[in-house]
Amino acid sequence: MDGVVEKEKGKLIQQLGSVSQFGITTDLWTHDHSSHSCITVTCQYIESFTIHSQILVTRVLDTKHTAENIRYTVKTVLEEFSAMCHSNVFVTDNASNMKAAFREFSWVGCACHNLNLVLAHAFSKKACSAGTADDFFDEDIGMPAEVVDLINNCKEIVRPVCSSLHIGCQ
Questions:
Q1: Pairing of strands 50-60, 106-109
Q2: Is 61 helix (H, G, I), strand (E, B) or coil?
Q3: Residues whose CB falls within 8 Å of the CB of residue 161, separated by 6 or more in sequence, listed in order
Q4: Which residue segment(s) compose the domain that 117 sits in?
Q5: CA–CA separation, 57 vs 118, rounded Å?
Q6: pLDDT tens for residues 28-79?
Q7: 56, 88, 109 — which closes off a domain?
Q8: pLDDT band at 132, cuts 50/70/90?
Q9: What does the alpha-carbon distance between residue 162 and residue 123 come to, in Å, rounded to a whole number?
Q10: Number of domains, the chain
């Protein structure tokens, strides 16, 4: 199996070698069953008017999630795949350690994370409590029951895509 992985990795490195700039996305999460922290690094790029997205790695990251450790890990991965360019654009959540990890580069907050924060605030118990019947409101989550059902249904639709891309969908 290692031979197949190394062969495919070599082909990917060769393919990435002709690219001059990447969009790099990374995220951290804790594995539900092992309690290990994991990091995934993906790269996106355009070649011949086609957008490509490649998952470079998903690895255990059991060190402290400091900006320095995150930057070092991502930089090591990018160098391993010949994808480290100073012109790369990094996309992460808005966590202060992520922002700090890529402060020397172009950094953009993930639109999906931003939308999640806005919706979580908009549907918070405080925001939704005015004129809401008790049986309409999910007390555990702090949102109207219909919104909880809608979000859960959307997650069921999106989860297989996230899983295939190794993106942590909560």
A1: unpaired
A2: coil
A3: none
A4: 111-170
A5: 30
A6: 988 888 888 999 999 999 998 999 999 999 999 989 999 999 999 999 999 9
A7: 109
A8: very low
A9: 24
A10: 2
13 and 73 part of one domain: yes
| Residues 52/22, Cβ–Cβ less than 8 Å | no
DSSP 92-145: E-S-HHHHHHTTTSEEEE-HHHHHHHHHHHHTSHHHH-TT--GGGEETTTTEEH
Cβ proximity of 23 and 89 under 8 Å: yes
Distance CA 81, CA 115 (A): 31
Same domain, 146 and 66: no
Beta bridge partner(s), residue 92: 109
The single-letter DSSP state of residue 168 is: -
Please, are residues 56 and 25 in contact by the beta-carbon 8 Å criterion?
Answer: no
Are residues 69 and 124 located together in one domain of the fold? Answer: no
Last residue of a domain, one of 109, 137, 152: 109
131: confidence class by pLDDT, cuts 50, 70, 90: very low
Q: What is the CA radius of gyration of the chain?
A: 19
Q: Are residues 54 and 73 in the same domain?
A: yes
